Amino acid sequence: MVDVPDMKPTRGVLSAVPGGVWALGFVSLFMDVSSEMIHSLLPIYMVTALGASALAVGIIEGIAEATAQITKVFSGVISDWVGRRKPLVLMGYGMAALTKPVFPLASSIGWLVGARFVDRVGKGIRGAPRDALIADITTPATRGLSFGLRQSLDTVGAFLGPSLALFLMWSTSNDFTIVFWLAVIPAFLSVAVVIFGVREPERVERTRPARFPLRRDELVRLPFGYWIVVAVSGLFTLARFSEAFLLLDAQRRGMDVVLVPLVLIGMNIVYAMSATPVGFLADRVDRTVLLFVGTMLLASADIVLATVPGHAGLAVGIVLWGLHMGFTQGVVAALIADSAPSELRGTAFGIFNLVTGMSLLAASVIAGALWDGIGPAATFVCGALLALISGVSLLPLRNRFLPRPKGT
Asked: How far apart, in whole angstroms, are the C-alpha atoms of residue 340 and residue 220?
């Protein structure tokens, strides 16, 4: 039987998190400040300044996010093959930083699409090795907390970015270009932290070397419980279309363009506040119960956004959306880490992100088509139905196939 740490005050609990996790969390924080300063304004900029449609926004956002997820397959496999994570993490953050100056210089949607694409390739390169590195340097007893903390720090950046964008848009009389230029600074700061603050084990512990390129006999080494997590997550991601539609919904409800970043600020505050406590709880209870709660929170958010008018409906929907992120993102990462062999963790995270990336692409395209063809309510109703289906699918499977935290 594996002992589970006693419940302690928050400060004592967080002291158990390895320094490498803290460093990676702050790297994510700085990059998210940069990215969200841009992305909190980009959908509105494309629609109002460049004349894009909601469907075009959905396609662009879907392709961008799917690109990031698909790239994670290759970076994850490579990190397993060479037994090193940090070089790929540095490459990914470096590519993202180099794209940031393109946004203030772009004069057409084509330039924005190109920059968004390269930025997401960078995200894909760093994502699976970073998550695998966190799994490498943590123990099962602190893994949920570590992933939750990393998500919280990442999300602090995700609400600081829109907050800065809001202030700068107000102080510059809605000058998108100035905001985009200032977003370059924290992106390069994140690269510096990777270089000087992130360390990894000399060699990833491997019972058998991973093979490259990826082969079928490597995939069959991943247990059935892992594939269940991937399948349920893919279905759930179909319900979680791009947050760009939350921004468009805020504008549709009459929110001034300078205030639109408040949507992401509010959502990410809730996300950041909930991710670490949920991660702490995930080390002590059945993680799939928390995942089920997250699917129900997303369904509730979509129902509210579809049926409750005005700013009140938007506010409640945003809070519920943020809670669903806190209950799902770190928990799913911990489930993947639990179920994959240590020498295949990069591959496991990569395949997981491939599946969810394709689902996110489909979700964003469907959301854009429903938005333009039927109306915003149809987009949110469809999301609610898919979230309910994914949540219900967990019930007959969790006790038989899905991994459970150590000590439960």
From this structure: 11
